[in-house]
Amino acid sequence: MSAQALRYLRMTCYIAGIVTFPAIAHANAAMELALTIFEWPMWLAYVAFTVVFEAFAMGRILKIKPRRALATSAKANLLTALLGTLVSLPIWVIIGQYGSLLNPNPFGHTLMLFVVFGILSALLEAGAWKTAAGKGAPVDAVSGEPLVPRPTRQSVLVHLLGVPLGMAILLIPPHPYPGLEGQATWARTKQTGFGVNAAPHLLQRAMSDYSVANGHYPKANTSEEALRELAPYLGKSKALSEDYWTAAYMPSYARFDTHEMRREPYLWNPEAGKYSIDNPPEKQIWLLKWRFKPAWGIIMLGSDLKRTNKPEELGEKPSTAETH
Length: 324
Fold this sequence. Notes:
Structural class: alpha+beta
Number of domains: 2
Radius of gyration: 27 Å
Strand content: 5-15%
Number of helices: 11
Order of helices and strands: HHHHHHHHHHHEEEE
Shape: elongated
Largest sheet: 4 strands, antiparallel
Helix content: 40-55%
Strand order of the largest sheet: 1-2-3-4
């Protein structure tokens, strides 16, 4: 290991102090958004890598001493973090969730986010690297400015090289997108009124309307079949969405998923189809429950629905209830 590489290694200890501050922990303009996608521990590891990698690469290219390069990288990333916080929300609205709100593309969404904000960060940070490279350089006799070209292309190149390297860190967990999963869950519940997280009265109204129109509750074996039957009664305009079916599943994204993989469906009770609003069940039965958390679900007694977290009301034994 060269002496310069050793110096970079020693100086990484400074990053531990840097990443403890939320503002600097944004690291670049993408962080404001990405913090809603990834887990904090992996994101902080990415922050440390980003600052050190950019310091090493730009320092070598521009022949800047390691200590100054590391300080410049930290300052430059802090600058883009602060500016990124101001522009991230409107840009988020413009680019949306790659795919759709109900059925986002986790990998494509993340890749696009990192490339777009990586280029924007590179353009913003080029000025800081020009200043750092200009220290000690000859100056123009007229303007007094250092005779150093703005290293825009070099900054863009380094940031683009950092995209696959940074994503390799963030995609280490088998399910690296917990924030995006939460966003999709919220969107599916809000837009469809279906699922374990839905308000029971929304399902109760849809079930009642369906029973009046068809003489029975939905005769379905799966939650997706039930949702297809209930869709017109949950909202006709919403039911026209091509991704409406995703509400029958809890979002669960692996590293390279590009759409809903149907890994974790809600469970629908086929027994419900035997009854109607005029022929309600004599005893309480469960209607819908979350497969990997059976202590959560919706139960039915007559035409009344309610949420419950009692395993015995969902046909589960408390001692054998699954957990997720």
